[in-house]
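To whoever is on call:

I kicked off a structure prediction for a single chain this morning and the downstream step that reads the tokens threw a length-mismatch warning. I double-checked the sequence; it's 286 residues and nothing unusual in it as far as I can see. Pasting both halves so you can look.
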Amino acid sequence: MAKRLLGKEVNEKLNARIIADCEALKAQGVQPTLAIVRCGERPDDLSYEKGATKRAETLGVAVEKFLLPEDVSKEELLKVIDEINANDKIHGVLMFRPLPKHLKADQDEICNRLDPRKDVDGMTDLSNAGVFMGKTLGFAPCTPSACMEILAHYGIDLTGKKAVVIGRSLVVGKPLGMMLMGKNATVTTCHTRTKDVPSVTREADILVSAAGVLKSLTKEYVKPGQIVIDVSINWDEEKGGIAGDAVFDEVEPIVEAITPVPGGVGAVTTSVLIGHVVEAAKRANS
């Protein structure tokens, strides 16, 4: 039976650090604050907002919400972002994406209007550049950051290891590949045009699945001794709940360790978000 890399254990250590940093800032008269910008009422946005708000309150971070109608104009949304940029009491921003359909063509412009110093979820080009350059320019997206927190917590040394990432999105796959490389792993990225993906993934020491396709990671993709990080959150009609990419009952008996879904990467992502807000407050106060 594989070791389960549980997000709960990672959170205990991560949250203790966040609380200590938060209390130190408050002693200096600084209240770390997260702004949430939501356009419309998508169920997944509402669910994540609820979790982020609860985690922020638990860890001592204030939340200010900017709730806009789904038909908000580009000009109105940019005005809100400008107000947040100018507010020194707001240290981090979570803006739900994708934006409404009528703003899709302008999404890059809108995201890049945000001050990168307050970009706690890798929305701006400068934040992404920071990940690729190994420099502190904004913050990396929270989900790949959560993957790295899990690997670090469980003492998984990446130096010289072969890491394979399934998925090349700017939200997970690409930044995670760079972050793994930054820890001296040799990284291969698989995507929809990769031929014979299982033959590639079976060579991995660390296998990260961020395809976002239910039951796409089967026993043919893995081998004994691997560490599997299942990033995806998919809805599984059969069990009436969420599941990752992995066919867990097939993959888990073969590999050395695996993150469950739920209870793995997703459980850590919200704490990473709040940790980024506190770190942004520390930078602003230094």
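Update from on-call: the warning came from a stale cache, not from the record. Cleared it. Sanity check on the structure: The first strand starts at residue 3 and ends at 4.
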